[in-house]
Amino acid sequence: MWLLAASVLLGALRAGSAELTLEGGGIIEKNDCNETVVLPCYVTNLEEKNENALFVTWKKQETPIFSYRGATKKFTIDPSFSSARFLSQGKLIDGDASLVLNSAQATVGNYSCKVTESNREGEIKMELKSSSVVSCGDETPEDKRGSWFLLVERAVIISLVCLLVILCAAQLSVIGLKYEIESQRKVCIIVALVIFAVVAGVGAALFIQDGYTAQNQAGLGLIVIPAVILVPLQYVMFGIVFDSLLQATLALIGLKLLGFIIAVVGFALCVPACPPLHGSVLIAGLAIMAIASLLSLAYVFFMGSRMKDHPRPGKAVEEPLNDAKGVMLE
Fold this sequence. Notes:
Elements: H1 2-17, E1 22-23, E2 26-30, E3 36-39, E4 42-43, E5 54-60, E6 63-69, E7 74-77, E8 85-86, E9 99-102, E10 109-117, E11 120-130, H2 151-178, H3 183-207, H4 214-224, H5 230-241, H6 247-270, H7 279-306, H8 313-329
Parallel strand pairs: 2-11
Antiparallel strand pairs: 1-4, 3-9, 5-6, 5-10, 6-7, 8-9, 10-11
């Protein structure tokens, strides 16, 4: 009788000590700004704290994706989760068995972490979900963002670039109708504008996609950086209309250059940040460039209307002088 009672008591003690307590489960969220995803798993009651006594297994939907046997220092990793690694292998003996996955491989679903220490083991389960919203600190709901840029921000950026191309083409058309343009110069302007439009179009196709990837960053770069070509194009087009650039034309060129510089600064601030906290700077720069292009178009159209069938400002001075020289020679 006493032997039976002792056996039951010993079995109960063993059963009680055979459980490892794990924390960190529940619902884990990932978003487009995450380059990596951490699946937390912490053991709070390790006794031996000896890596040789530990065996860790991570599963997704009951399928093993990652395991580590401390006694042999051997990893077994599913090829579909080749990026899997411990958050900090050095902290494994302290109970930290958290797993890190690249965002692309961290597919949504149910995951489990099982840790064994000698004859004691424990398991915890969690669900990984995809979140379309990411917020920073104490931002208000209006400041919350999904993806890298909000869809409306992406639409505004692409629309502004399209507007820049349209306004530049319209200005060239107005100048072509009112003034004679050397064929070589005309071809150079058209080729430069087409190249910018094509490059910006490729950039827009990459940038419009959801996510925070190298493709999105490269796409935004192809939209912003090549816009510098619009500054010398503006100079050339004003040079066709005016023999000597007036203060107003120089101011418009300077305004467009200022807009480009602001857009580049905004781009540089946005690339390393997700969500882009300074996206408004980039948009403001492109908007300034668009305003400068619109004012330039209006200025060329207005001045062209006043000077229709009349020489350009520089020529108005040159021709009387030439006439006077001819009279003197006679």
